[in-house]
Amino acid sequence: GQQVMQIPQYQHVQEGEDFTTYCNSSTTLSNIQWYKQRPGGHPVFLIQLVKSGEVKKQKRLTFQFGEAKKNSSLHITATQTTDVGTYFCAGLPGSGYALNFGKGTSLLVTP
Amino acid sequence: DVKVTQSSRYLVKRTGEKVFLECVQDMDHENMFWYRQDPGLGLRLIYFSYDVKMKEKGDIPEGYSVSREKKERFSLILESASTNQTSMYLCASSPMVDNNYEQYFGPGTRLTVT
Q1: Which of A11, A14, A28, A40 has an alpha carbon 20 to 30 Å from A85's alpha carbon atom?
Q2: Do A33 and B101 make contact, defined as CB atoms within 8 angstroms?
Q3: CA distance B11 to chain A (A)
């Protein structure tokens, strides 16, 4: 099936450092979504990007969708311990109902 | 608030048993999904349904079946449980209308097959 690759798999940072996770799709996407899963929890929707080149911000989080609609990134500025969790990207292909999830990036933040 | 509930948080079954996992959503969403989540493999789609009585295979449907008799309920069935089906099972629903494709997840069922 269609692939969404996400890197890195793990990231360990000191509190206050920045963090970025990247997603790449083998095919053009109609939209891309980002989810956060806290340890022991379930994935929770963060944001959806639809337009080519789109950039959205949520406080310290910045989300980008590439010009070709094949890649995306999530950047967290000045991480906090509350940012700990696994971040998933999920791409919706041009047709169809099913999201293709990346394998996630697990973020650990130490104080 | 959208609510997606799953019948059990933890379940222990024996090899060969028939297992039913139930999922209910209260937001009148057309689309519902079943995933399994395993360490290092992320979320893998088992089946999804875009309407009552409609179903589509996902990436890993082998060993599973589903039922959607009512809009709010989507059931995952393991016909004969095997140890390699030990996993976390997540249900989700989504409106998928008006450019809203957000998926709402249930709390998950951690299934252990012994």
Answers
A1: A28
A2: yes
A3: 16
